[in-house]
Amino acid sequence: MSTMNLVLSVGEDCRIVMVEAGGGGNGSCSLEQLYACCDLAVDSAQRTLVAIKQLSARAGKPKKSLQPIAGQQVDKPWLIDDELTGAIQLYASATLGELLLDKDLDKMAFDERVANLRHETVDNLRQAQCFQEDQLRFFDVAFNDLLKKALRDQVFNTGRRRDGRALDELRPIDCSVDLYPSLHGSALFQRGQTQVMCSLTFDSRQAAFRGDMFSLLNSGGMVKEKKFMFHYNFASFATNELSSARGIGRRELGHGALAEKAL
């Protein structure tokens, strides 16, 4: 017999936005059973959405609309001047195309070259004095749109990623185990430039986590005793970010929960 904990995020018109699932037991769940569970969840969510709308109609407050200040225009980054987009393409498209074709550039080197191209392009536009500063404030949005379009065009036109891999080809994977003999278990996993250091510690059965009544009810009565603890830590400097160490963040909680389910 198998057990499944399925969570769906559903929008209007029976649209499934997100699916998260976890399971256990010795049995397996067929696709037909999974589809039936999804249908049941979608129907239940639609009834909940109807109830929310009814409650909002009776007791909800109207949303505030943004009113522009007299004499000022509300910024709309999605309405970018076509002349600005054309100028960015004129200055940057050729160099950007060369960068996309350079398979020797890894991710960090490619990002650095793109950042340099971004600065050079906006400096050239300022020196040419073709645009005012209120127009150039949308430069980053227009440049990002050009970069996304160039990446998409390369993928769809060539069937290859920027680093030369096929669409169904993974980055090189390397796994090493027993790196630290003093630990009960240790491993280093690397895929491309992503590295994960893992360590394992055993303890007695008496150290298992036993939740209170609220934890038991929240898990649907499925978790009475937890013998496996998983801790996930993702340092901000791993992605060239700067942030203060203020405890575990949303990304670590979410990624850690998914990794624990996978294990």
Automatic annotation (TrEMBL):
Keyword RNA-binding tagged: yes
Molecular function in Gene Ontology: 3'-5'-RNA exonuclease activity; polyribonucleotide nucleotidyltransferase activity; RNA binding
Gene Ontology CC terms, in alphabetical order: cytosol; mitochondrion
Alphabetical UniProt keywords: RNA-binding, Transferase
Every Exoribonuclease phosphorolytic domain range: 169-262
Keyword Transferase included in the entry's annotation: yes
Protein name (record): Polyribonucleotide nucleotidyltransferase 1, mitochondrial
GO biological process, one term: mitochondrial RNA 3'-end processing
